[in-house]
Amino acid sequence: MSFPPRYRAKSRVDLSGEESRAKAVAVATELFATAGFKGTSVAAVAAKTGLSQSGLLHHFPSKAALLAAVLEERDRQDGDFLTGTTAPPLGWAAFDSLTALAARNSTRPHLVGLFVRLAAEAVEPSHPAHTWVQQHYAGIRGWLTEAVQAGKDRGEIAADAPVGTVVRTTIAVIDGLQQQWLLQPGEVSMTADFEAFVGTLRARWSIVGSG
Amino acid sequence: MSFPPRYRAKSRVDLSGEESRAKAVAVATELFATAGFKGTSVAAVAAKTGLSQSGLLHHFPSKAALLAAVLEERDRQDGDFLTGTTAPPLGWAAFDSLTALAARNSTRPHLVGLFVRLAAEAVEPSHPAHTWVQQHYAGIRGWLTEAVQAGKDRGEIAADAPVGTVVRTTIAVIDGLQQQWLLQPGEVSMTADFEAFVGTLRARWSIVGSG
DNA sequence: ACATACCGACCGACCACTCGGTCGGTAGTG
DNA sequence: CACTACCGACCGAGTGGTCGGTCGGTATGT
């Protein structure tokens, strides 16, 4: 998406353009997270960015394009965990990575709210974020399924553990805890609760003496 | 809400009013479930009900009032499980009731969609359904907390089981499975997955020989 | 000259909601 | 029975406001 700087890097015009774009994405992330996509107006994003509506639409041809940029940015920030260049964690280590992800998300309510909002809004196929949400779930599902299967192969996880159910339930716990965390931010620890859930999984499906 | 019939009960005018009202609530439930509250227009509800917009607003003074009627109806249908007149189930039986609730919900995608949608939309305090969502979660939390505590007292559940975490995680699993079920209706069984989760809980926190 | 960043003015569509009325049925009175 | 008074159900035609998006222009830097 980012094209090479054709002028000197410090050019005021280009810099200003990039800055406006980035700021608009940040503002849109926050507003989409709290008011949803349909509940947020382009004018509101523009105002909070410090642009006129036309100025904002100069950078993003449509509201949907702005949403796409927001989702792209979210993927970029989270992608290191799942689709990063490093090898993905396997076996129980994958669940530890998810715990770490939960801990990190606890410091970024904007991104959590954005996801919870959009996941619910985009259930209907006509929503501009529908395919993104589908792919997001498919990605996590596939990643976690592979990790659990690998855990079986290397003797960490019991061979009779129901992979699909474990995977879906784990994802469900993450999503559900996020929802509750948004409703009572101070009184819920996503990290602790998820860690306890993983402990329960280990107690049930760990092969004794393997970790 | 219902005032005493000043005329004979079978008056055709009154009956027609009740019917229109009920149909409007049913239609609104469906539309709110698929398009959300903000994404649904009063005109759309009116058209699908078979009324003009003015006719619909004759029965419900505002869109928010229509939403309130929808939520009231949902509570009425689900309330038997949690706040019914019969004594609430305690100990592990409470989780069996939740399994039954999941099974019943599997046959009513409208109500599931309505809840998932509104729970996400109503995170922001200004949303007309915000307090309803808060109370809904508080109700389930309290109900399940009491059940788990009672299970400890009667020796079904281990005394060192972390009540709060178990309760929050259980609610999270329900919510998360609903979300996934909405995204892939045919490929997920909320009932089976939740049942497996309960099995994992039992394996970890059941007191041996008690059930 | 040329591209980029940006704005003011505007547009048609849609929004929730209001207003003034019609219509059919009911109750009371004679 | 007829007549009046009244009711709830419902509609057509608006209200002002907001929506996403377009267009023509200006200012600026290369």
Task: Provide the descriptors you would attach to this structure in a database record.
Arc Repressor Mutant, subunit A; DNA-binding; mainly alpha; 9 helices; Tetracycline Repressor, domain 2; homodimer; disordered N terminus
pLDDT averaged residue by residue of chain A: 88
Number of strands of chain A: 0
**CATH architecture descriptor text of the largest domain in chain A:** Orthogonal Bundle
Query: Which spans of chain A of ≥5 residues are poorly predicted at pLDDT below 50?
Result: 1-14
Question: Into how many domains do the coordinates of chain A divide?
Answer: 2
Describe the protein in words:
The structure is a homodimer of 211-residue chains. Chain A has 211 residues and is mostly helical. The first copy, chain A, has 2 domains: 61 residues, Arc Repressor Mutant, subunit A, CATH 1.10.10.60; 125 residues, Tetracycline Repressor, domain 2 (Orthogonal Bundle), CATH 1.10.357. Chain A contains 9 helices and no strands. The longest helix of chain A is centred in the first third of the chain and has 24 residues. Chain A is elongated and about 65 Å long. The N terminus of chain A is likely disordered. At the A-B interface, α6, α7, α8 and α9 of A face α6, α7, α8 and α9 of B. Chain B binds a DNA duplex (30 and 30 nucleotides) through α1 and α3. Chains A, B: InterPro entries: BetI_C, Homeodomain-like_sf, HTH_TetR, Tet_transcr_reg_TetR-rel_C_sf. Chains A, B: Keywords: DNA-binding, Repressor, Transcription, Transcription regulation. Chains A, B: It holds the Pfam family TetR_C_6.
